[in-house]
Amino acid sequence: MILCESICKTYGKTDSSVFVKALEDINLNIEDGEFVSIIGKSGAGKSTLLKILGTILRPSEGRLIIDGLDVTKMKPGDLSEFRNKHIGFIYQSFMLEESLTAIENVALPLMISGLKKKEYVAKALDMLRMVGLEQRSGHKPSELSGGERQRVCIARALINDPSIILADEPTGNLDEKTGKEIMDNILRMSKGKTLILVTHDMDLAAMAPRKLVLHDGKLV
Ligand SMILES: Nc1ncnc2c1ncn2[C@@H]1O[C@H](COP(=O)(O)OP(=O)(O)O)[C@@H](O)[C@H]1O
Ligand SMILES: [Mg+2]
User: Fold this and answer.
1) Which of 9, 19, 32, 74 could form a disulfide with 79 if both were Cys (CB 3.0 to 4.6 A apart)?
2) Does residue 47 line the site of ligand 1, with CB under 6 A?
3) CATH class label, 32-58+69-212
4) What whole-number percentage of the chain has pLDDT above 70?
């Protein structure tokens, strides 16, 4: 379970011109295996909230508790290990390593976990097969289409079998047809997992049994 207790996030110093209150008093409870969508206008704080849920960002105030563990108190090293194991991130802009091939990108979380090469190559190839990309395993991101890059990103997000999948506008850079295929991939691969989807596509958001709306940093 994911529990947000009075989470606030500010950027910049209080009296500076770059000061922004991105999130205000977020209280939220997400059960294991739930599929939740988050919608809201640009600048509403959606990405900030997702980064906090994904332990990439620390809240300025409040607590984030995942499976009974207060992650806001964890040391950076422990936190990145926790994140690598439990959380899969899917980004609008894919965030792939341009210098690495598709299979190396997918294998990255396993390399970080210290798996042997033979094992991580086999597992990464399996993941690429699951998203229908085994024929592209040796391609660099620049040699792949947008939809293919996103499938590499999905395979990478899921390779450690995380229990939580966070997707930030995963279809935002794709045409409608490719976007649909990508959503099908995400839904299929995150069965039984907690899925939190940020989108401003109302049709996509409506696929989730639970829809959250962010407005000016607050849940409404
Ligand atoms: N690194 C940052 N430094 C300063 N302000 C930021 C930073 N990231 C986001 N913001 C600001 O915080 C607010 C929320 O941003 P964001 O979470 O990206 O919104 P959304 O994803 O809903 O478009 C915006 O006003 C944005 O300008
Ligand atoms: Mg955003």
Assistant:
1) 74
2) yes
3) alpha beta
4) 100
